[in-house]
Every structure is written in structure tokens, then in C-alpha cells.
Write a structure and sequence with these properties.
Elements lengths: L1 E6 L3 E8 L6 H4 L9 H6 L8 H11 L3 E7 L3 E9 L11
Antiparallel strand pairs: 1-2, 2-4, 3-4
Length: 95
């Protein structure tokens, strides 16, 4: 797994990449559903409640951003968290 980030004029983007099994296209959107059983489908067990990505996406969207997932079976996945940024404010008082 690796984590990287980039900043442009509008967003801080955080990329979480893995080289695991990947997620089949037919269930990729389901990873954002609350209590999704995608992990069970992929791993054969239940490793969590299925809330992490739905909570992350909800918070990102509340701030005007988003979370996206891209995956290729057999090659891994990339999750991108995009958070809007604002330019620094000039905190000096103008006289």
C-alpha cells in the first residue's frame, strides 16, 4: 500500500493505492454503501462493518469534495479523497 497527495488550485487530493486483488467492476460502487458486504465477497470473511468508506465519502461531500474508487481485478485499487482548499487569508490588518 502507498499513500500520496497532490494539490492544485481547488483541491487537496490524497491517493491510497494497493496492489491487492482489486475489486470487480460490478461491485465497485457498492464499497461506498453502508454495511456493504463487498469485503465478505472478496475475502471470504467479514473484516469490518462496512462503514469506513461511506463515512469518509459523506464527510468529504459535506466539505464540497468527494471520494472515488478505481480498481482493476488482479492489479489493485486506488481510492482518491478530494478535499477543497481555500487560499490562505491575509491575516494582517489593513490600516
Amino acid at each position: 500500500m502507498s499513500v500520496d497527495c497532490s494539490v492544485d488550485e481547488k483541491f487537496l487530493s490524497i491517493f491510497v493505492k494497493d496492489t491487492g486483488k482489486g475489486i470487480p467492476v460490478k461491485v465497485l460502487d457498492k464499497v461506498f454503501d453502508r454495511f456493504s458486504d463487498v469485503d465478505k465477497h472478496l475475502s471470504g470473511g467479514n473484516e469490518g462493518l462496512g462503514l469506513g468508506l461511506s463515512i469518509a465519502r459523506s464527510y468529504a461531500r459535506m466539505m464540497g469534495g468527494d471520494v472515488e474508487a478505481h480498481s482493476v481485478e488482479g492489479r489493485g485499487s486506488v481510492f482518491t479523497v478530494m478535499i477543497p482548499i481555500q487560499p490562505p487569508r491575509d491575516v494582517r490588518k489593513k490600516t
